[in-house]
Amino acid sequence: LELEKELRRALERGGLELHYQPQHCAAGRLAGAEALLRWPHPQHGFVPPNEFIPIAEESGLILPLGRWVLETACRQISRWYREGLLAGIDHIAVNISPRQFHQPEFVAEVEAVLAATGAPPQKLMLELTEGIVIEDVTDTIAKMEALREVGVRFSIDDFGTGYSSLLYLKRLPLDEIKIDRSFVSDLETDPNDRAIVETILSMARHLDLAVVAEGVETETQRDFLKRHGCRFYQGWFYSKPLPAAEFRERLRRRR
Ligand code: G
Ligand code: G
Ligand code: MN
Ligand code: NA
Predict the structure, then answer these.
(1) In the predicted model, is pLDDT for residue 163 greater than 80?
(2) CB under 6 Å to ligand 2: residues?
(3) pLDDT per residue over 41-59, tens digit each?
(4) Rounded-to-integer distance, Cα 183 and Cα 242, Å
(5) What is the CATH number of the domain that holds 185?
(6) Among 21, 53, 106, 124, which is best to mutate for testing ligand 1, by the most ligand atoms less than 8 A from CB?
(7) Is the CA virtual torsion 46, 50, 55, 57 positive or negative?
(8) Global pTM?
């Protein structure tokens, strides 16, 4: 309860930050980023999202919090776009929580944020999790289709960890899947993980879905993923999540 109060206060007083973890293409070029929420706590340092997102989800604070994330990312996308820094950049991805997505006004909220910030919808990728999908597939599809109409794209986060992942591929209007870090981390030692990752990449190719591999930490992992046709790579091998100003420097230095 204390943490929830402090989080609410941080949100109200501008005490939260968005960092951006770069995503690279197979040839090494910078291709995009995932926006990640950071809470620098005056006493405890950075509080991990895994600790405070569930609290926010539980209490409903995730609604204003998620809106702040979306607005902040879109304002940033709009600014970088006007500065000419997003040429050749495929997307900036934003995490959407289940409760945020299932609001009746979610589609209108995203459209309003795009209009207010002037962010080009084509640069926005929304990352959904399994938690979103299992609740109401018909409503999920309707919302995704409405936003894809506007040009927004969708990615499924933590792919492979859910119990019905294959069902999403068949039913949801997706553009991208993110291979969960747990499959990538043991690629070098676990033949089962190699088989799973190969299978995901092969399926994605047949279904015409882009794939992002998460948690890429070594060249060996990158090479394996590259050999099997992975499109985007995210992880410490390339970069940790960066404050906005530092990510902007990466965008700028490309030219
Ligand atoms: O930032 P980190 O890599 O520690 O992320 C931990 C978890 O928190 C991940 O599952 C990530 O998706 C989630 N997360 C990070 N930022 C956000 C956000 O802005 N919104 C939501 N809903 N989840 C986030
Ligand atoms: O949305 P998701 O939960 O997948 O968020 C990504 C999380 O993974 C963040 O907490 C981020 O800090 C973390 N992360 C990003 N790159 C790496 C990496 O290469 N290795 C590990 N172990 N974690 C990473
Ligand atoms: Mn994510
Ligand atoms: Na993930």
Answers:
(1) no
(2) 21, 36, 95, 157, 181, 214-217, 235-236, 241
(3) 988 899 999 999 999 999 9
(4) 24
(5) 3.20.20.450
(6) 53
(7) positive
(8) 0.96
Please report which confidence band the pLDDT of residue 131 belongs to, taking 50, 70 and 90 as the band edges: confident
Query: Ligand 1 atom closest to Cα of 97?
Result: 22
Q: Which two tokens stand for residue 225?
A: 């993923």
Q: How far is the CA of 92 from the centre of ligand 4 (A)?
A: 15
Confidence of residue 167 (pLDDT cuts 50, 70, 90): confident
Residue having the nearest C-alpha atom to atom 20 of ligand 1: 95
**Overall number of domains in the chain:** 1
> No. of H helices and E strands in the chain?
12, 10
Q: How far apart are CA 47 and CA 66, in angstroms?
A: 17
Provide the domain limits for residue 164: 2-253
> Would you state the structure tokens that stand for residue 32, as one six-digit string?
């995009």
How remote is the CA of residue 83 from the centroid of ligand 4, in Å?
Answer: 30
* DSSP run (H or E) holding 249: helix 244-253
Ligand 1 atom 24: residue of nearest CA: 95
Phi, psi of 67 (to 5 degrees): -65, -40
- Tens digit of pLDDT for each residue in 14-50? 999 999 999 999 999 999 999 999 999 988 899 999 9
d(CA 41, CA 232): 32
**How many Cα atoms sit within 13 Å of 26 on the Cβ side?**
11
Atom number, ligand 2, closest to the C-alpha of residue 217: 19
